[in-house]
Amino acid sequence: MTGRVSFVGAGPGAADLITVRGAKRIAEADVVLWAPSVIEVECVREHARPDAELVDFSRVTDADVVEVYRRASVGKLKVVRLHAGDPSLWGGLRDQQDACRRLGLETDVVPGVSQVSAAAAAVGRELTTSDVAQSLLLVGPESAEHVEEFAAHGTTMAISASGARAGLLVERLRAGGYADDTPVVVAYKVSLPDETVAQTTVGELEACVKEHKLYRTTLFLVGEVLAPPASRRRVAVVEGDEPVRRARPSKWAKRAGRPAAKPGESPSAAAWSAVHDWQETARTKRSAARPKPEPVGEPMLHLVTDQDLPEGAEQPADDEAKPKTKPVVAAAAKRTPTTVRASTTPRKPSGTRAKKNKRVN
């Protein structure tokens, strides 16, 4: 067994927009690298183990981050590096992977909801349509100077650039062929409580940015697809000579629609409760698997733990010290191995398989 570093997309900002796989990686992690300035605190507090080592990588050097990877290689630790949005977009993923592989570490990438998707969802628009634009250009902060060349394609653009240079951005969009009335969506801290999402045009873009006092890196969506949708009247479906076929739910759809919800509890609440159950199981297994490793060399990072007992508190008995899991989770742990692979194909009952074999024979 070697150490592993998982690059996890934390989503655009809101803690509940992380994927289930990303939450599971955090629950298993011995060390979590993250930046509180761009990732919601609840995203880590909700999923990380109490004894996990938390590192703000925005306050340390690249050499310090590599040292964390080296300790993970020596101690066979599981490390999670959280990326805002999706790791594949402007996240410096390749350099991090190369550093891990040189140290003999396994790596995996967990995708996340990007800021581009979240901004489009905030205004209820699709970024590609068959009749307006069928492609999307992504322009990062380091490529903002080439906006004029990209704008010549006349398609939808997602530009991550400094809000303080909005005037220069407008000039380049105009030079590339965008008219002043081209719709623009301005998004900053999208999906967070203090988000700023404004709809404007190329001609009014600079004034909009100044009005909302956006001077840091901001996302700009530009293109005709962002125009408000025209009012559409509903067309009645008239049944002709051909019979109208209604979709029949599959067996898997029926299975998915029957979560074990408690009385008065919604199915979605029951599903989220199940996620928390296996998170606690993952934390318990990781804590009981081995004692907490001692850091190699001089300690550099702050440890967050709540396992120290206060003065005068009695040591709990062995039975009390063991975490109590729900019967359903405990039973599932006995039936399944440590690594669980989900299947999207419903399992047929044994009686059906027996009948089929009988007909074949």
UniProtKB/TrEMBL annotation:
Tell me which UniProt keywords the record has, alphabetically. Cobalamin biosynthesis, Methyltransferase, S-adenosyl-L-methionine, Transferase
Q: Name one GO biological process term.
A: methylation
Q: Where is this region: Disordered?
A: 241-361
What is any Pfam family matched here?
TP_methylase
Superkingdom classification of source: Bacteria
InterPro entries linked? 4pyrrol_Mease, 4pyrrol_Methylase_sf, 4pyrrole_Mease_sub1, 4pyrrole_Mease_sub2, Cbl_synth_CobM/CibF, Siro_Cobalamin_biosynth, Uropor_MeTrfase_CS
Q: Which PROSITE patterns does the record cross-reference, listed alphabetically?
A: SUMT_1
Can you name this protein?
Precorrin-4 C11-methyltransferase
Source organism per entry reads Saccharothrix saharensis
